[in-house]
Amino acid sequence: MDARRSANRRYAAGTVTVLGAVLALSVLAWAFRPPVPDPETLCPTARPIRAHTLVIVDRTDRWDPAVGQTITELIEHAQRSTAQYEKFSVVSLDENMSTRPVFSVCNPGEPNFVSDLYKGRRYTKRDFEERFVGASDAVLAQLQRPSAAPQSPIVEYVHRWLGRDDFNASIPNRRLILVSDMRQNSPEHNMYVQGQTGLPELVQREFGESGAGVAYDIYFVHHGGDSRLSEQDVRNAWDAAFRRISATYAWKQL
To answer: By C-alpha distance, which of 186, 196, 191, 190 is closest to 237?
Structure first.
């Protein structure tokens, strides 16, 4: 009888241990469950995005087709640098002035045990490889094609992005990569006529405090089609403008 009671106690203790372990694993799996993604952008729906990298490709001036491949490599590198739950967007500044991105998706992260547990590896692998990494191929092919427009409203276009819900001052770690010849030309400011005069004031007014919190990477495109404004003249003007809003920026040659 005593042996049977002892065996029952051991059985009960073992059962409790197993159930406790299962419960603990369930709690851990629930606590570390991946956020529910938006079906279109793959961004978390129940938490803010961790960062947003925006690439603006200025297609208002025609460049050498060979530049297109360099732009492709630049965008691919920026995309690879986007961490999990961070957003990566590419947009084209052209004569339509549309802020609708040609590509705008959060990095859902590479498949792992927890994500596979909740969604299945086939779906997590598809989201990462096809919808985040692979989906930009068609976009890059489109952006490689040179284009032209009568004006280059660079400041006004950036202003429109600074007011969007996914790139305003509430979003942390914003980075703007601007691929352009940076020759501002619009009714608000024509650099060919006014030079540097008035550009810092325009940038301060249009970018405001929201623009001051962005890290800017300027990739200057030397298209060789305009000798009226040298790169140094253009850079001096934008140096003064970025200093006016105390922005962090880097000026690079494409």
So the answer is: 196
The structure's pTM equals: 0.79
pLDDT tens string 228-239: 788 999 999 999
Could you give the CA distance from residue 248 to residue 242 in angstroms, rounded to a whole number? 8
Contact 55, 157 (CB under 8 A): no
Residue 88 pairs in a beta bridge with 53, 105
Tell me the pLDDT tens digit for each residue of 41-84: 888 887 888 999 999 999 887 777 778 788 888 888 898 898 98
Contact (CB, 8 A) for 51 and 83: yes
Largest CA distance in the chain: 104
Burial (CB < 10 A; 0-12, 13-18, 19+), residue 57, is buried
For domain 52-253, the CATH superfamily is von Willebrand factor, type A domain (3.40.50.410)
* CA dihedral sign, ordered 44, 179, 95, 68: negative
